[in-house]
Write a structure and sequence with these properties.
With 53 residues, the chain is mainly β. 0% of the residues lie in helices and 58% in strands. A hairpin with a 2-residue loop joins strand 1 (13-22) and strand 2 (25-34). The termini are far apart.
Amino acid sequence: MFPTDLKTGLAVELRAWIEKDFAPLYLLRSELKQEGEVKVSAEAKFMKSEAFS
């Protein structure tokens, strides 16, 4: 989701966290803030693979 534009030259704060843990499936969420306002948010699903453990 891109609710508003980002301004160049200003610092950003990026947060990511595990929203749900159904091992080996994980739902992660993230958000990028600038000047205290959420500018971008996302969610993704990841599956743990034994090949990379």
